[in-house]
Amino acid sequence: MVTTPLLPSDYLDLFSPLRAGADLRGRIEAVRPETGDAATIVIRPGRAWRGHTAGQYVRIGVDVDGVRLWRAYSLTSPTDRRDGRVTITVKAIPDGKVSNHLVRRAKPGTVIQLDQPTGDFVLPRAKPAKVLYLTAGSGITPVMGMLRDTEFDDVVMVHCAPRPQDVIFRSELHDLVADKKLRLTEVHTDTDGMLDIARIGALVPDWAERETWACGPAGLLDAAEEHWSEHGVQERLHTERFRPGVVVTGDGGEVTFSATGKTVDADGATPLLDVGEEAGVLLPSGCRMGICFGCVTPLKAGAVRDLRTGEITEAEPGVLIQTCVSAAAGPCDIER
Ligand SMILES: Cc1cc2nc3c(=O)[nH]c(=O)nc-3n(C[C@H](O)[C@H](O)[C@H](O)COP(=O)(O)OP(=O)(O)OC[C@H]3O[C@@H](n4cnc5c(N)ncnc54)[C@H](O)[C@@H]3O)c2cc1C
Ligand code: FES
């Protein structure tokens, strides 16, 4: 009663936010610029942190202009870092709320929300004889976590970025090359043009024999999946996507967030999560690409379309939708 309306734990959080038993949090201890628009965030996780496997990602909750926003970031630190800290490396994207906040405004000392690490874009227990890392832009991050964690006898990397100065971790990659721990081809797309995946054989003649981890924009990954399939080696290709592949859009409609009392017009291509956030409705979220189920919300009335498959879901009692990959398919009511 003494502390009402706050709970005693809220006071404890002020002094010891990373203590055992508290919700999992982390404290930003440093922000290190990597390129003009990317930075590594060094985080000390709370006591409950269970550790990660190289290649996994963590969901973090950050307060931006008073609103808590959740995003997923790959862990770029090795799994055995002695000081117990972990790192993520973030590339600021145009108009990106969280990425710009983390790269340009995050301050050491800030406490952020953390989830336990997750994801199946990881290395197998048995080391493959030959490895290929195929990455572009910020897609290098989970692979850097792997490179820092596990050495292979024969590892080749093909990385795409507009210019040399845009290559995140460039000097560390070149150190690995100098130590003969990595063979690296950089494709500078401003001068070399986009990588034509059909020509991967010119860069890596034995690509089809290599266990491959690929991360980058949808165009690169779609082309790689097609190429590996055409050559019957699709089981050697492991991909990680940062955004959902939108394949089907349709007519939108009027979206009502009945609990908040807001109604907005939405097109048939914008995820309801974005529609709600734009309207100032507080919606739960996580990966924002349909994999974590952190955004599931009851559909009270109307219909929505899954942007990945085109499947229509109509409201029924108990029906939940993933707002990050669902768009309005006519008028609908989202229970938030
Ligand atoms: C498993 C996973 C791992 C990830 N790891 C990393 C990582 O290590 N480093 C990293 O920088 N990012 C990573 N991301 C992407 C990250 O979660 C955010 O999507 C990204 O930082 C943009 O968030 P934002 O709030 O800045 O943009 P928002 O404010 O959400 O979006 C702003 C605009 O940019 C568009 N947009 C959203 N995401 C992207 C994107 N990834 N590329 C281009 N346009 C986009 C939106 O459609 C919108 O128009 C990862 C995503 C996933 C799912
Ligand atoms: S936010 Fe992860 S599934 Fe929607």
How are the SSEs ordered, and which strands pair?
Blueprint: H1 8-15, E1 25-35, E2 38-45, E3 57-64, E4 67-74, E5 86-91, H2 97-105, E6 111-114, E7 131-136, H3 140-149, E8 155-161, H4 170-178, E9 183-188, H5 189-192, H6 200-203, E10 211-215, H7 218-230, E11 237-240, E12 250-257, E13 262-268, H8 272-278, E14 296-306, E15 312-314, E16 320-322, E17 326-334
Parallel strand pairs: 7-8, 7-10, 8-9, 10-11, 12-17
Antiparallel strand pairs: 1-2, 1-6, 2-5, 3-4, 3-6, 12-13, 14-15, 14-16, 14-17
The structure holds flavin-adenine dinucleotide and FE2/S2 (inorganic) cluster.
The number of distinct helices, counting runs of at least 4 residues, comes to 8
CATH superfamily of the largest domain: Nucleotide-binding domain of ferredoxin-NADP reductase (FNR) module
Under the CATH scheme, the architecture of the largest domain is: 3-Layer(aba) Sandwich
Report the strand count: 17
Strand order, sheet with most strands: 4-3-6-1-2-5
Strand content: 25-35%
Please write the string of helix (H) and strand (E) elements. Answer: HEEEEEHEEHEHEHHEHEEEHEEEE
Report how far apart the termini are.
30 Å
Q: What does this protein structure show overall?
A:
The protein has 336 residues and is α/β, with parallel strands linked by helices. It has three domains: 8-114, Elongation Factor Tu (Ef-tu), domain 3; 131-240, Rossmann fold, CATH 3.40.50; 250-334, Roll (Ubiquitin-like (UB roll)), CATH 3.10.20. The protein has helices at 8-15, 97-105, 140-149, 170-178, 189-192, 200-203, 218-230, 272-278, and strands at 25-35, 38-45, 57-64, 67-74, 86-91, 111-114, 131-136, 155-161, 183-188, 211-215, 237-240, 250-257, 262-268, 296-306, 312-314, 320-322, 326-334. Strands 4-3-6-1-2-5 form a six-stranded antiparallel sheet. Strands 12, 13, 14, 15, 16 and 17 form a six-stranded mixed sheet that branches. A hairpin with a 2-residue loop joins strand 1 (25-35) and strand 2 (38-45). Bound molecules: flavin-adenine dinucleotide (FAD) and FE2/S2 (inorganic) cluster. Flavin-adenine dinucleotide is lined by residues 57, 71-74, 88-91, 93, 95-99, 119, 138, 141, 242-243, 287-289.
